Predict the structure of TetR family transcriptional regulator.
Amino acid sequence: MSKPEFQRARSPEAKQMREAAILDAARALGAEHGIRQVTLTDIAARAGMHKSALLRYFETREEIFLRLTAAGWQEWTPALAARLGAITEPGPASVARAFAETLAERGMFCDLLAQAPLNLERNVSLDAVRDFKLATLAARECVFTALEEQLPRLGRDDALDLIATAVALAGAFWQIATPGPEVAALYRSDPRLAHAVIEVEPRLTRILTATITGMTPEPA
Amino acid sequence: MSKPEFQRARSPEAKQMREAAILDAARALGAEHGIRQVTLTDIAARAGMHKSALLRYFETREEIFLRLTAAGWQEWTPALAARLGAITEPGPASVARAFAETLAERGMFCDLLAQAPLNLERNVSLDAVRDFKLATLAARECVFTALEEQLPRLGRDDALDLIATAVALAGAFWQIATPGPEVAALYRSDPRLAHAVIEVEPRLTRILTATITGMTPEPA
């Protein structure tokens, strides 16, 4: 934080705009190439600034992608709550499908969900981790509310486990379902590897249907 | 592969011993520090050889850890099958506990399970990926057999989904449960972050119990 004063004397609005531009650049690159390929230098180039200038806004590439992960939670959870609210045939299968569809539609978010605990939370400040955890905690509230309406017999602890299961599986399955191009070709060419080719949405729907069914046994 | 002939003219036994020594060194370092911290240079130093010598046996650090992941599957699955075979009170909860206990006892394997699709499968040769996939596929067979005996109503597709769910959740939850020391201290210090502290085994037992219950409905 030893930058000369004239560089820091921006208006809060100008600072927010630069941050938003950096996040937009990282989002576009992540969607094009996958998170793992994107460097801080790439993001600075896409945002049209020098890397040294970018470092005044974010400390590491991990901080940028952790911010995008939090933004992903804030965008996904209301969409999921709306999908849950629109269910016409209540029950475990419909709820599972709402989770699976809304997650499978958000490939970069699935990528980020898997990367966050492994890679992103490990190279940022404690403040950044705290902000991230509190943001994702708050984002869950609208899902709890929607689940209470759809599945009145699902307790709060089960709802927490269900969300954790859905995001962990979506992250892991997305990684397995999107290997590099050479490995994808290998999977298609060798019938013994047919099991390695998975589709995120149907598998997630099947598993979450079973999990929710087991969490909400019919009253005896 | 332009090494001089005299270096490659080892007996197959000598080559296997060097490979085993390298894998042992990587396993010890991974258990001490977590996979993500361990470099090829660290492994060479622990195995008592130069990095250039190590590169005659393995192409990348990822290839070494992918081999350890396959070895982890080959060690875990018979242990799980034995635990399943020893169940005295059959049912979803006992089967779930066998999965959760045997996975939670194997921290480095959980770490590897999460790292494999994200990081390890992406920096190795196609042959290495093929060998890895075929090894983990074969390792599952003894679990299928044990599951058939414990849960006769669980179909093969559900058994495949169950194994995939257990390893994906174990990998993801292990990462969340073992943050760096500073982040762990933050979690303990801020009551708003209590939800961020999770225990792998009880959570995995709860979720898998529900999933298996939903996969094996009582006949009407």
